[in-house]
Amino acid sequence: MKRVFLSLITVFLIGGIIVAQDGGAPDVSLDSFEQCNNWARHYCLNGNHNNAVNYKLLQLKKRGYIITTKLIKSYAQRTPANTQVPQNAN
Q1: Does pLDDT of 19 surpass 80?
Q2: Could you give the angle at the alpha carbon of 63 between the alpha carbons of 60 and 64, nearest 5°?
Q3: Helix or strand (DSSP H, E) at 88
Q4: Residue 86 belongs to a domain
Q5: Which of 1, 22, 52, 53 is a good FRET partner for 7, with 20 to 30 A between their CA atoms?
Q6: How many structural domains is the chain composed of?
Q7: Helices (H), the chain
Q8: In terms of residue numbers, what domain contains 32?
Q9: pLDDT tens sequence across 23-70
Q10: Per the domain annotation, does 88 fall within a domain?
Q11: φ, ψ (nearest 5 deg) of residue 42
Q12: At CB < 8 A and 24+ separation, what contacts does 81-89 make?
C-alpha cells in the first residue's frame, strides 16, 4: 500500500511540474473594442497610424492598464500619421 501511495504522489508531482512548465505567460492581445478602429469608432487613419496606435495600446495593456475610449482617443490624437510600428511587433 505504501508503494502505491508513493507512486501516485510521484506521478502527480511530475505531472504538475510538466503542466506548470507548459503554461508560460499568457498571450495578451487587444479585443475588438480596445482597438483604435472598430465597428463603433474610427479614431485612426488606416494603415501605419492605426497599427502604431494599436501597438501602443497593446504595450499599455501588457503593463496592466485598462484600455478605455478616452485613452484610445488620446493616443490616436497624439500619434503622428507617419509613425512606423517596430519591426519586432507581432
Answers
A1: no
A2: 90
A3: none
A4: no
A5: 22
A6: 1
A7: 2-23, 48-62, 69-78
A8: 2-78
A9: 666 788 999 899 999 888 888 888 889 999 999 999 999 999 999 999
A10: no
A11: -140, 80
A12: 81/45, 81/48, 81/49, 82/48, 82/49, 83/48, 83/49, 83/52, 84/48, 84/52, 85/48, 85/51, 85/52, 85/55, 86/55, 89/55
C-beta separation of 62 from 34 below 8 A:
no
Q: Report yes or no on 70 lying in a domain.
A: yes
Q: What is the pLDDT of residue 63?
A: 93
In this predicted structure, what is the pLDDT of residue 75? 92
CB-count burial class (<10 Å; 0-12, 13-18, 19+) for 65: exposed
Domain membership flag for residue 10? yes
Q: Own/partner pairs for 66-72, CB < 8 Å, 24+ apart?
A: 67/30, 67/34, 69/41, 72/34, 72/35, 72/36, 72/41, 72/43
Which positions ≥6 away from 71 have C-beta within 8 Å?
Answer: 57, 60, 65
